[in-house]
Design goal:
Largest sheet: 5 strands, antiparallel
Shape: globular
Structural class: alpha+beta
Strand order of the largest sheet: 2-1-5-4-3
Order of helices and strands: EHEHEHEHHEHHHHHHHHH
Helix content: 40-55%
C-alpha cells in the first residue's frame, strides 16, 4: 500500500485551512513540492525540530467551497469525525537552513561522504525554491491522527543530533544503507516534478529501482489525488475494517451453507480474500 507525504513551500506558517477556502490560493502561489513514499525522508527531518509539530483538522484538507464536493464526500466516507486532527511539521526557511548547516557533519558522517553532494544539493534547493515557510503534509500516512508520538520522537532525536546520533537516527541511516543502491536521492530526499533531482545529481546517482509512481508522475495525474492524499491514497477506514471482513465472512458462510462442504467454504474464503486484496491494491496504488 503506497502512502505519500509531501514537502511544500508555503506563504503561511501553518497548513492551509479548507474552512477558510485557502487551498486554491495555496496552489495559485506556485508551491514548490517534493514527494516521498511511506514516511518522511532523512533530509526532510534535517529541516525540523520537535517545536515544529502542529496539528490541523483532517477535514480542512478540502476547501469548504470546493465545487467537486470533495469535503462532503470525505466526511461521508472516511470514518473520521469533523473534529479529528492530525500532526504535521512546519518551520521557517531561515530556521530550516540553520538546522541544515548544523546537522550536515553528523548526517554526512552517517550516510557516507559519497552522498554529500545530495545533501548539499538539497540545501541549495531549499534556499532557492522554498519559503518563507516549509511544511510536511502528512495526511496521506495511514492513521494520521495517531502519528504524533512517532513524529515527536524522531524530531526530538534530530534536535539532539549534534550531541551524538541516537538510536532513531541510526535506524534511519541503517535503512538508507540497506537500500542505498536502489535510488539514494529518492531515499534521502524524495523527488520533485522538475527541480529535483538536478540533472547533474541524477546522472551521478542513477536510479536502480523499478519504474513506478514518483513525483514526476504526480504532475500528470489527477491534481486532487496529489493534493488530498487523505482521501485519494487510501480506501476509507470503514471499508478496510468492516466491509472487507463482512464480505469475506459472508462469502465463506454462504458457500458453506449452500454446498455443505468445508473444502468449498475454505476455497470461497481464499477467493474472497484475494478479491478484497486486489480491490485494496487497486485503490491504493
Amino acid at each position: 500500500m503506497a502512502n505519500y507525504v509531501f514537502l511544500n513551500s508555503s506563504e503561511r506558517p501553518r497548513m492551509p485551512s479548507g474552512e477558510a477556502g485557502e487551498w486554491q490560493q495555496f496552489w495559485r502561489d506556485g508551491s514548490s513540492e517534493l514527494e516521498a513514499k511511506n514516511g518522511i525522508p532523512l533530509l526532510w527531518w534535517c529541516l525540523f525540530g520537535e517545536a515544529d509539530i502542529a496539528r490541523a483538522r483532517i477535514i480542512d484538507n478540502f476547501d469548504i467551497d470546493d465545487p467537486d464536493g470533495e469535503r462532503e464526500d470525505f466526511k461521508a466516507e472516511s470514518g473520521y469525525s469533523e473534529d479529528t486532527t492530525y500532526p504535521y511539521l512546519v518551520t521557517s526557511r531561515e530556521q530550516a537552513l540553520i538546522r541544515l548547516t548544523r546537522r550536515r557533519e553528523p548526517v554526512v558522517r552517517g550516510i557516507g561522504e559519497t552522498y554529500a553532494p545530495i545533501y548539499d544539493g538539497f540545501v541549495e534547493l531549499i534556499a532557492r525554491d522554498f519559503g518563507p515557510f516549509i511544511l510536511v503534509r502528512t495526511a496521506g500516512l495511514p492513521d494520521p491522527g495517531d502519528a504524533e508520538v512517532g513524529l515527536r520522537e524522531t524530531a526530538g532525536s534530530m534536535d539532539r543530533l549534534e550531541d551524538g546520533p541516537g538510536p532513531i537516527f541510526e535506524s534511519m541511516v541503517a535503512d538508507f544503507k540497506r537500500w542505498q543502491n536502489s535510488d539514494p536521492i529518492w531515499l534521502l530526499s524524495g523527488a520533485g516534478a522538475d527541480a529535483w533531482p538536478t540533472p547533474a545529481l541524477a546522472s551521478a546517482f542513477p536510479s536502480g529501482r523499478k519504474p513506478g509512481r514518483g513525483a514526476s508522475d504526480a504532475s500528470t495525474s489527477d491534481s486532487n489525488a496529489v493534493r488530498n492524499p487523505a482521501r485519494s491514497k487510501t480506501l476509507p477506514k470503514f471499508v478496510v475494517e468492516w466491509i472487507g471482513p463482512l464480505f469475506v465472512g459472508g462469502c465463506t458462510v454462504i458457500v458453506y451453507l449452500w454446498m455443505r462442504s468445508i473444502a468449498l467454504g475454505a476455497f470461497a474464503f481464499a477467493v474472497s480474500v484475494a478479491l478484497f486484496v486486489l480491490l485494496v491494491t487497486k485503490f491504493n496504488r
